[in-house]
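Why does residue order matter? Because the sequence determines the fold. Keep that principle in mind as you read this record.
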Amino acid sequence: MSFYHRYELVKLVHNGDPKSFEARDLQSGQAALLHLWSMGGDSPSAVLLTRMRRILATSPAQSAGRIIDVQEFAQPPYAVTAVEAGFSTLAAWLDSL
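Structure:
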């Protein structure tokens, strides 16, 4: 499912690969960070999607409430995480888990 049906992008917070946006869940109004990859998924940072999926599968307690959604097969691929103070990049955020 496309993120456009679930989230409103509010503000770009990191213009890299992936791009990270402050976002709002359209149904609940909850704030989140939405991380958006280029179409095609062959970006060097696509490995972050795999890493997030692995964390969800192997360490659900570690990621509980922090990794909200990972849609690696959506076009474009995206992931949604909780808003946390001090966010700089998705890679750095994952290293802090």
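Strands lie at 7-14, 19-25, 31-36, 67-71, 78-81.
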